[in-house]
Automatic annotation (TrEMBL):
Belongs to the peptidase M20A family. Residues 191-324 form the Peptidase M20 dimerisation domain. Gene3D superfamilies: 3.30.70.360, Zn peptidases. This is Probable succinyl-diaminopimelate desuccinylase. InterPro entries: ArgE/DapE (IPR010182), ArgE/DapE_CS (IPR001261), Bact_exopeptidase_dim_dom (IPR036264), Peptidase_M20 (IPR002933), Peptidase_M20_dimer (IPR011650), Peptidase_M20A (IPR050072). Its EC number is 3.5.1.18. It comes from Corticicoccus populi.
């Protein structure tokens, strides 16, 4: 098998049928699969029909009400050659106030070289590229020595448990490496993520007449304000970054200096615990001393500190306050995690980015979190690479360049061929 010739033929097919690829991505956007509420019924039906027409073996799993996972395979599971997982999520964050959009967020319109709509960057363009690539390998009857598994999950945007962690726990997918088509820079796949520590802090007071405060009762809101001030000190903790992570941090700083230049000022977030005070609820009315107040806080953890250690730090910070409180974890939960840049699945992506684009490619670290952590929990090396206009993700007027969608689809195909034709 002439691998390079095969890749060239597949790349040419993508160029010749690029309108079909863009149309597929456009159709995906037209399904408003907002999460919450998380209903992926219609988009799942569409994808399943598309993949079935391409001759793929497909299994459908409902992990929660109206949340559907699809698993499609082509090739044969191999003990000698690598087996690869393509992964993408079909849910998107809510569009929000549609009057603030310049276009219908669910139009999937293509205009002036842009694909427009909610999910264009996160991540229906990337998902469309994975679907198109997997279907193409099946339609062309490419005899893959390893197995390619396409996993499409319904529950990523809320940090939920009904997508990737659900199918991994039930042993519904397996592979030696994984590519997630999450948004990234064109030349810089994401090979590491910070950890996540989301929690609700609730303080309790003693209700009473507001006219007697602060001499009467215990004010839950006042106590919570004091607690928040202490928790914000997590940023100031001096954390020792492990030596094996320093090359990744160096490359990530280079990326912020040379590519996303406007992000260079944020480089310190890679080495500190970030603390976002996201939501506060408390009190009954202005003339009642509040008996309860709750704040939701999102912390992201660098390498060098664990979730358990953060829990201990929070307890130490709050102890001197002598307040009545409780903490409840929710949402994203993980320690910082990464895949080495020289792992074969990472190399297959960066090498093919360079082949397709003719430019240098290297992996970087993400200051947020993703489904990648779940694969690493199962010792599956993983990275993220997908088309995106990064500044529009989760915002109004989300969009992505159509040429970037085409480039990424070629990279997916080239990486799949290289990886699946590689012996373990």
């Amino acid at each position: 098998m002439n691998i390079n010739k095969l890749k060239d033929e597949l790349f040419q097919y993508v160029d010749d049928h690029s309108e079909d690829l863009i149309e597929l991505c456009s159709r995906l956007i037209q399904f408003p699969s907002e999460n919450p509420p998380g209903d992926t019924t219609d988009i799942t039906n569409f994808i399943e029909d598309y993949l079935t027409e391409s001759g793929l073996n497909i299994e459908r799993y409902e992990s929660n009400d109206k949340m559907f996972n699809l698993v499609a395979t082509t090739g044969e599971k191999s003990m000698e050659y690598n087996n690869l997982i393509f992964c993408g999520h079909s849910d998107v964050v809510p569009a929000g106030d549609k009057s603030k959009w310049s276009f219908d967020p669910f139009s999937g319109e293509v205009k002036d070289g842009w694909l427009l709509g909610r999910g264009a960057s996160d991540m229906k363009a990337g998902l469309g590229g994975l679907i198109f690539a997997t279907a193409l390998l099946s339609r062309k009857n490419i005899e893959l020595p390893g197995c390619l598994t396409l996993a499409i999950v319904p529950d990523e945007e809320t940090g939920g448990e009904f997508g990737v962690p659900w199918i991994l726990e039930k042993d519904l997918i397996a592979g030696d490496g994984c590519l997630i088509a999450e948004p990234s820079s064109p030349q810089n796949p994401t090979i590491g993520q910070k950890g996540s520590y989301w929690f609700k802090l609730t303080t309790y007071g003693t209700p009473g007449h507001g006219s007697l405060s602060p001499l009467a009762g215990g004010n839950a809101i006042v106590d919570l304000i004091a607690a928040v001030q202490e928790i914000r000190k997590l940023w100031d903790i001096d954390i020792t970054i492990p030596n094996e992570i320093r090359p990744l941090l160096k490359e990530s700083k280079r990326y912020m200096q040379e590519v996303e230049k406007e992000r260079e000022e944020f480089y310190p977030v890679l080495e500190h615990i970030t603390v976002n005070i996201g939501k506060i609820e408390g009190g009954t009315k202005s003339n009642v001393i509040p008996e309860k107040c709750t704040v939701e806080i999102d912390c992201r953890l660098p390498f060098g500190i664990t979730q358990d250690e953060v829990t201990e730090k929070i307890s130490e910070l709050l102890a001197p306050l002598n307040i009545d409180y409780e903490i409840e974890r929710f949402g994203f939960k993980s320690n910082a995690n990464y895949t080495p840049a020289d792992d074969p699945v990472c190399k297959s992506i960066t090498d093919n980015i360079e082949v397709v684009s003719g430019k240098e490619a290297y992996g970087v670290m993400q200051w947020a979190s993703s489904d990648a952590r779940h694969f690493r929990d199962y010792n599956i090396p993983v990275l993220q690479y997908g088309p995106a206009h990064l500044s529009t993700i989760h915002g109004y007027d989300e969009r992505v360049r159509t040429e970037q969608i085409i480039t990424c689809c070629k990279v997916y195909l080239g990486a799949a061929i290289d990886y699946l034709y590689t012996t373990k």
